[in-house]
Design goal:
- By secondary structure, the protein is mostly helical.
- The protein has 37 helices and no strands.
- α21 packs antiparallel against α22, α30 packs parallel to α32 and α34 runs antiparallel to α35.
């Protein structure tokens, strides 16, 4: 055995042992089965030992195993090669790197990189590129170190580095690398262009994206389908939907990715009707709908708010045999839930032959958000009788169901299950627990959970602020909001809903106005209907009905049921102007004509002022329209 190669083999062995790979049972099993599978690859022992003298044969066998997705055997065969007198070449190394990448063994790759350096392949650009592609999924610091240490960079390496930056959300760095490549005299090819366009798309860099588009035309890459697909995606995400559709229409050879990309672009630009048209064109183009595109089409139906389209699409899926995929059935039941069609959602769930934990969690979530949250607990009991185990999302939905039901003991039981499963460190689960205990008035327990969270995100802060508001502790809600800002956490729309709601519940009008004004002025957050509803509620609760109405009339958007509902509730609780109440009730009836509660509230206001003729007039109006008052119900937790 030649001395340099003897050292490489020893280093490979020593490093694996030093890092605990040999002692690790999983790795030991890998090596053991690799050896067995490698020997089994040859029909005769003589053939196995006879191949040792030829590097081409070794490399061919290793490469063949990689192509057959037998990565463990490929690594095992390479280890045996190291034990012979045969030195691998860079092609062998490339095959082994692909095998390690297929197994996702970061620690083994670290050993392999050491072997590469020891054997002098670190200047081989193709080897460096393969290592960079592997580490882009794990450690960008190592990627940058390897890239910067490589003296000669070819087009493939530059393109791989651009792709690595984009994959790691280092978009500014991706732009810099793309420019540096051209300064270095390397002209981008179609791979480079496809690699950089997602950075333009995800940062909204439309101008730079147009420059790349121009470059693709100049270099004659624009007819390539993958380049055009990337351009369609870039224009759609940069909110230039017209240009996106124009590029799409000019694709001569559309593939499935082309259709999927443009449909997603329609969704991102709130153009569901256009998405339907694209889907119909796809059908006429003889492209078969597969399981990858169905979730996007379901999202289109939800966005269009077309329940009948959903029913028709359900039939389409049945006809094409696509409901055999659990993921599609899960997406379909979630669609029905969005339309409030709980019966159809339950039917789809019951028809699923092999339910996974995602479908169970989805059904539990649907029940938790419905008018019958106790069904979520029943579904959870059914799930426990299967082999599927709940995850964090399952427990969050169950806690929300317990919160809606006012069921303390089941909530505590769910907490115990989550603790046993080791999920309490999850921020969403902790936030759900805070919500649960605060709604039960157990604010101190909610605060204790909040204090135990090591790294608090926006959801946790928002839950605690909302919890204080629900319990009439507005001062502590404002203090928590200040503490959040002091921790460097920037508020979002949801946090402002929580703090404005707290100010409303606690009558903190001055503080509420300050928070509302700071949204856009200080944090650049444009108030939405939910924020305006909080302010209307705040003014109405303070008895300032006229001021609330003026505020509504000055809103930059059309008021919805929440806005007018808050104003009507204020008229009822503060005995405000009956003329304002009539105006508000009229607007609400126009928005929600089947809801009898508005008639009831207005009738009660008339009765309080002795206007019995108006009470009788409303009663007759309800009868003439055939409206029925919804039956009230209560839930109690049974022992």
């Amino acid at each position: 055995m030649r001395p340099p190669f003897r050292n490489a083999h020893r280093m490979f062995e020593e490093i694996t042992q030093r890092n605990g790979f040999i002692r690790n049972s999983a790795y030991s099993t890998l090596c053991y089965w690799s050896m067995l599978n490698t020997c089994a690859y040859y029909e005769h022992p003589y053939e196995f030992h006879g191949e040792k003298g030829n590097v081409i044969s070794w490399t061919s066998k290793i490469s063949s195993l990689v192509k057959q997705n037998q990565s463990e055997s490929a690594v095992g065969l390479f280890k045996m090669m190291l034990m012979t007198e045969q030195r691998p070449n860079y092609v062998t190394i490339l095959s082994v790197i692909r095998a390690i990448g297929g197994l996702g063994l970061e620690d083994v790759m670290r050993v392999m990189y050491g072997t590469v350096i020891k054997m002098g392949f670190e200047s081989e650009v193709s080897v460096v590129t393969a290592i960079i592609r592997f580490y882009s999924d794990y450690n960008m610091r190592i990627v940058w170190k390897i890239f910067n240490q490589t003296p000669i960079k070819d087009l493939v390496l530059w393109s791989a580095m651009v792709s690595a930056c984009v994959k790691s959300w280092q978009y500014a760095e991706a732009f810099d690398i793309f420019r540096a490549m051209q300064y270095d005299g390397v002209k981008p090819n179609h791979v480079s262009i496809v690699s950089i366009l997602p950075a333009c798309a995800n940062t909204g860099a439309l101008l730079f994206g147009k420059e790349i588009h121009g470059l693709s035309i100049k270099r004659m890459f624009h007819p390539l389908t993958n380049v055009q697909n990337s351009l369609v995606d870039m224009y759609a995400k940069c909110r230039n939907f017209k240009a996106s559709m124009l590029v799409f229409d000019r694709i001569l050879e559309k593939d499935l990715i082309s259709w999927m990309t443009v449909i997603r672009g329609c969704i991102e630009n709130d153009c569901p009707i256009e998405a339907f048209k694209v889907f119909f064109r796809m059908q006429f183009s003889c492209f078969r709908t597969d399981e990858k595109i169905v979730p996007d089409l379901i999202e289109v139906i939800i966005q269009a708010d077309k329940h009948k389209f959903g029913l028709a699409f359900h039939c389409f899926l049945l006809k094409n045999g696509l409901l055999t995929f659990v993921s599609i059935g899960t997406a379909l039941l979630q669609m029905y839930a969005k339309f409030g069609d709980l019966e159809s959602a339950t039917f789809v769930f019951d028809q699923l032959h092999e339910k996974d934990y995602i479908s169970w969690s989805a059904m539990i979530s649907v029940h938790a958000r419905s008018n019958h949250p106790y069904n979520a607990l029943d579904t959870f009991k059914q799930m426990q009788s299967t082999d599927e185990r709940p995850n964090e999302i399952t427990f969050v939905s169950l806690l929300q169901a317990c919160s809606s039901m006012g069921a303390q003991e089941p909530g505590e039981s769910i907490q115990a299950h989550a603790t046993k499963a080791g999920y309490l460190s999850n921020a969403f689960l902790s936030s759900a627990l805070i919500d649960l205990y605060c709604k039960f008035g157990r604010i101190n327990q909610g605060k204790a959970i909040f204090n135990e969270i090591p790294t608090k995100d926006l959801v946790c802060w928002s839950s605690m602020i909302n919890g204080y508001g629900l319990n009439g502790r507005g001062g502590e809600a404002l203090e928590t909001f200040s503490n959040m800002l002091a921790c460097g956490v920037k508020p979002n729309e949801v946090v402002f809903i929580s703090i404005l709601s707290a100010c409303s519940h606690c009558g903190l009008e001055h503080e509420g106005w300050n928070c509302f004004s700071s949204m856009e002025q200080k944090y650049g957050i444009v108030p939405k209907l939910a924020h305006y509803a909080c302010m209307v509620d705040l003014l109405s609760r303070r008895g300032n009905i006229e001021g609330a109405l003026q505020f509504v009339n000055k809103m930059p958007m059309e008021p919805d049921k929440r806005i007018w509902g808050a104003l009507l509730a204020g008229c009822r609780s503060t005995y405000g102007s009956i003329e304002i109440a009539e105006l508000v009730a009229e607007r609400l009836i126009g928005l929600d004509p089947q809801n009898t509660s508005y008639y009831v509230i207005l009738s009660n206001l008339y009765a309080e002022q002795g206007r019995w003729e108006d009470v009788e007039r409303l009663r007759k109006l309800v009868d003439e329209k055939g409206l029925k008052k919804e039956t009230g119900y209560s839930m109690v937790e049974a022992e």
